[in-house]
Structures are given as C-alpha cells and as structure tokens.
Amino acid sequence: MVQPHLLLTALMLCSSPACSPGSPVPWSPGHQLKEILRLLVQLQMTPSHKCLDDNRPEFRLTIQKTEATCVNQLMLQHIFNLFKTQEARAAWDTQVLKELLSRLAESLEPLVKSREEPVFCTQPRLALLKYFRSRFCYLQKEQYSSCAWEIVREDVRKSLSHISDFHTEVSN
C-alpha cells in the first residue's frame, strides 16, 4: 500500500505547470544529489573519528519527507554558500571544491528557473536557515579548523543524504 504522505508529495511535485503535458521534464534530484554527495565524501581530508570530541555541538536538521521537495533549492543554495567562502577554499582540495561548486550551480539552475514554492515551505525554510547559521557560527568559533570543517562537511552530507533518500522513496 502506498503511504499517504508519499502520494501527497508526488501530487505536489506534479501540481506545477512544469508537469503539464508537453512541458519539459521537471528537475530530477536523484542523479544530481548523488553526485553532490559523492563530491562531499571526496572532500574528506581528516578522518572523522579524529575530530570527535564531547564539546562539539549537536547539529540537527529535522525535515519531514513531505517537505523534502520544497527545501531542495534552499539546501543546495546554503551548501553552495558554505563552500564558496575564502575559508573553504583554504581548507579543501581546490579541484574537488571547484567540481562541487560547479555541480551545485548546475543543480540550482533549473530550480531557480522554476521558482514555484508552496506556502507550506515556510517552516522548513526557517529550519534550514537556523541549521546553516549554526554551522557558520560553529566554524567561526572554531576558527575554521580542519576538524570543524570536517564535522560540518559530514553533517551537511548526512542531511543532504536524508533528503536524497526521501526523493528516492517518492520516485519509486
């Protein structure tokens, strides 16, 4: 039996003019998100276990499956903003970082063009804003150390992975 929340999400995805017959296929997050996740893993330079300590903050992003669609653009935009900083360029492998930023920009382009946002996206938008603001503050507090970057990179990867999983469920 199909889950009601998955049906609702699928209905919302195809309630836009982009889903009407004859229109181009709407942006499909599957491949793009997997590529961005691969690059986030490839960025890892410091083993995560070396950065574990009891003083690090617990970052939590709580997004419901039905909200995954409306947070895509904002999530990708915040990741782009986080990794395009001077501090990020100093911390990460330049080649992988360039590729990550390029993929993020490619993924954002169709989302920006179809800028239709349902009214129910207000809460997830606020949660994302708070989520990324806490990461920027943490990096500043830790003076952009390699461990701070690694903790933020891994946390962002996990959050994006959850959204990717939601999209996979909806598309199946």
Indicate the topology.
Elements (H helix, E strand, L loop, with lengths): L3 H10 L15 H15 L24 H16 L2 H6 L2 H20 L8 H20 L4 H26 L1
Helix pairs in contact: 2-5, 2-7, 3-5, 3-6, 3-7
InterPro entries: 4_helix_cytokine-like_core, Interferon_alpha/beta/delta
Keywords: Antiviral defense, Cytokine, Disulfide bond, Secreted, Signal
Main location: secreted
Q: Report low-confidence residues grouped into runs of 5 or more.
A: 1-27
Rg over alpha carbons:
17 Å
CATH architecture annotation name: Up-down Bundle
Major sheet attributes: none
Number of helices: 7
Examine the coordinates and then state which fold CATH places here, giving the name of the CATH topology: Growth Hormone, Chain: A
- The percent range for helix content is 55-70%
Highest-level CATH class: Mainly Alpha
Class by SSE composition: mainly alpha
The string of secondary-structure elements, in order, is HHHHHHH
In whole angstroms, how far apart are the ends? Answer: 13 Å
The average pLDDT value, as a whole number, equals 74
- Shape estimate: globular
Say how many strands there are.
Answer: 0
Name the beta content range: under 5%
Q: How many structural domains in the coordinates? A: 1
